[in-house]
Amino acid sequence: MHELTFIELMKISLVMPVLLVLSIVLVMVFLERWIFFTRMARVDASLFKRVKQAVREKKLKEAQQIASGGRGLLAQALEAELDAAQTGSREEIDTVLTLYYQRVQALLSRRLGIFGTLSFISPLLGLLGTVLGVMRAFRDLALSGSGGPTIVAAGISEALIATAAGIAVAVSAALIYNYFNFRLKYVLNSLNLFGQEILLLVVSGKEI
């Protein structure tokens, strides 16, 4: 089989242009999520240590100012918790922490379902493209009335490219999905840990 050009690849099956569009969507959503996670999903342990030290010294206003100087959703959550700690009860602090936990989870999990969907449907689309390509190869062979195994093999090998393309998109989507999910869990666990430590210090003066 000769080396296929991009145009010839797209003509192998009707599924190939669809897989191309899905791969473009995959790249665009990945870049958007990566930029968002880089900016907003930061876990600054040094910032938390400074906030914790200020809370330990009963300087809640100073601790809030330190948190406000941080970047990302975690810093915003700590700032809101410390603001509530200055005027509210334990229940109010708990409520603020819970609301920010849900907010962070919602913002970071946005569009991640696209990766899961692509990892599921891409191999199926690739298989569909291969089946259609094989059907076309045999139909062309029947219409020509001539040829042999070599011609059939060439047509099938070209059709299998659709399956390979579908698997490539699916594997990429699955890897990206798992990567962002691991980062999401890490941020949420850090938020829960930091928030509870601050709450414990504010309410009882104890720390873990």
Quick summary of this structure?
The chain has helices spanning 6-11, 15-40, 45-56, 60-68, 73-87, 90-109, 112-144, 149-204. With 208 residues, it is mainly alpha-helical.
Q: Could you please describe the fold and organization of this structure?
A:
The structure is a single chain. This protein is an all-alpha fold and 208 residues long. The protein has eight helices and no strands. The protein has two domains: 6-39 and 110-170, no CATH class; 43-108 and 192-204, no CATH class. Helix 3 (45-56) runs parallel beside helix 8, helix 5 packs antiparallel against helix 6 (90-109) and helix 5 (73-87) packs parallel to helix 8 (149-204). The chain is rod-shaped.
Assess the beta-strand content as a share of residues. Answer: under 5%
Query: Which radius of gyration do the C-alpha atoms yield?
Result: 27 Å
Count of helices?
A: 8
Mean of all residue-level pLDDT scores: 86
Number of domains: 2
Structural class: mainly alpha
SSE string: HHHHHHHH
* Shape by Cα distribution: rod-shaped
The major beta sheet can be summarized as: none
Uncertain segments are: none
User: What is the terminal-to-terminal distance?
Assistant: 67 Å
Considering DSSP H and I runs of 4 or more, what fraction of the residues is helical?
A: over 70%
The tally of strands reads 0
